[in-house]
């Protein structure tokens, strides 16, 4: 069976093309949405760390701003943890950095910001990429206030690992879902096309003379087809019946002229006239019976029926 002539193959091929395309598009959309959500969550957490630093910040004897006491975020106390914090003055000079940044070789650049302004960005330092959140604050020092920039950096690899776990889980489940949907589609197609298979089976039985009409109960979309098919079969049987009847009448009607001509052989002098009369009679009989056989509305012909 050709691929272009099979409804089942067409539907399966369509599902096999459209479903993976939809799964891939949905997966990419979910992956992108998760990446944006995770990154926003990390930025929000880093902003929260800056608020914690502000709560513990105090001016030191040199007029710089330092964070006093134990840090609430444990990673800021662990060297090389991937989370770093620093405070810079208006000139960009670092006045404080978290213990986690000691010996890490991480450069924390102070952004030129107005008081109360936030800056969220990504920076490439050496071979690493970092999420950076900076916030400018004007700290009252009795001399009109001094501008400081508090910044927090996080190694992007922490975010990438989190996204990697989500992406692997996402695509595994999407592949499982695609396979399950394809199997469900195959089962649905098998069930949906079962009426067509039953119609084909009944037609084969009709061709073999095992039944006369399509007698099964079918959905409304197929019921019209089976009804028209039964009407066609009935019309064809009636037409073939007329043909058989005409042939029977023709054979019976021709017996008499043939018998007359056979008897005329015994009287040669009358044979030409008798043959002429009987041939004309036979021609009239044949024309009449053919007209009877072809009487009625003509229609499409079905294969000969037993």
Would you write up a description of this structure?
The chain is an alpha+beta fold and 306 residues long. 55% of the residues lie in helices and 15% in strands. The chain is built from five helices and seven strands; from the N terminus they run H-E-E-E-E-E-E-E-H-H-H-H. A five-stranded antiparallel β-sheet has the order 4-3-7-6-5. Helix 1 runs antiparallel to helix 2 and helix 4 packs antiparallel against helix 5. The longest helix has 50 residues. The relative contact order is 0.08. The C terminus is likely disordered.
What is the fold's blueprint, element by element?
Blueprint lengths: L6 H50 E3 L5 E3 L15 E7 L4 E4 L20 E8 L2 E12 L6 E10 H37 L1 H14 L12 H45 L6 H23 L13
Antiparallel strand pairs: 1-2, 3-4, 3-7, 5-6, 6-7
Spatial ordering of strands, largest sheet: 4-3-7-6-5
- The multimeric state of the shown protein is single chain
How much helix, percentage-wise, in residues?
55-70%
Number of strands: 7
Share of residues in strands: 15-25%
Low-confidence stretches: 297-306
Structural class of the helices, strands and pairings?
Answer: alpha+beta
Rg over CA atoms: 48 Å
Largest sheet: 5 strands, antiparallel
The average pLDDT score comes to: 80
Q: Whole-Å distance between the termini?
A: 29 Å
Could you spell the SSE succession in H and E letters? Answer: HEEEEEEEHHHH
Give the number of helices. Answer: 5
Query: What would you call the shape?
Result: rod-shaped
């Amino acid at each position: 069976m050709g691929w272009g002539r099979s409804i089942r193959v067409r539907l399966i091929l369509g599902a096999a093309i459209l479903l993976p395309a939809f799964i891939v598009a949905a997966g990419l959309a979910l992956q992108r949405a998760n990446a944006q959500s995770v990154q926003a969550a990390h930025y929000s957490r880093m902003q929260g760390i800056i608020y914690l630093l502000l709560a513990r910040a105090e001016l030191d004897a040199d007029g710089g701003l330092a964070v006093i006491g134990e840090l609430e975020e444990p990673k800021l106390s662990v060297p090389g943890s991937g989370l770093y914090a620093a405070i810079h003055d208006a000139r960009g000079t670092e006045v404080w950095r978290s213990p986690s940044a000691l010996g890490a070789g991480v450069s924390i650049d102070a952004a030129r910001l107005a008081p109360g302004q936030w800056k969220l960005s990504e920076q490439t330092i050496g071979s690493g990429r970092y999420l950076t959140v900076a916030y400018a604050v004007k700290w009252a020092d009795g001399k009109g206030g001094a501008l400081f920039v508090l910044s927090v950096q996080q190694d992007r690899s922490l975010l990438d690992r989190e996204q990697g776990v989500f992406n692997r889980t996402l695509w595994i489940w999407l592949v499982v879902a695609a396979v399950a949907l394809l199997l469900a589609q195959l089962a649905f197609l098998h069930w949906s096309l079962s009426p067509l298979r039953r119609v084909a089976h009944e037609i084969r039985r009709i061709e073999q003379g095992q039944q006369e009409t399509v007698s099964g109960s079918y959905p409304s979309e197929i019921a019209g087809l089976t009804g028209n098919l039964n009407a066609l079969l009935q019309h064809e049987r009636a037409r073939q019946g007329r043909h058989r009847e005409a042939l029977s009448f023709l054979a019976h009607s021709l017996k008499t002229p043939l018998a007359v001509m056979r008897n005329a052989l015994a009287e040669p002098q009358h044979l030409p006239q008798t043959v002429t009369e009987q041939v004309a009679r036979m021609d009239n009989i044949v024309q009449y019976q053919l007209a009877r056989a072809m009487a009625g509305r003509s229609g499409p012909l079905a294969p000969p029926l037993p």
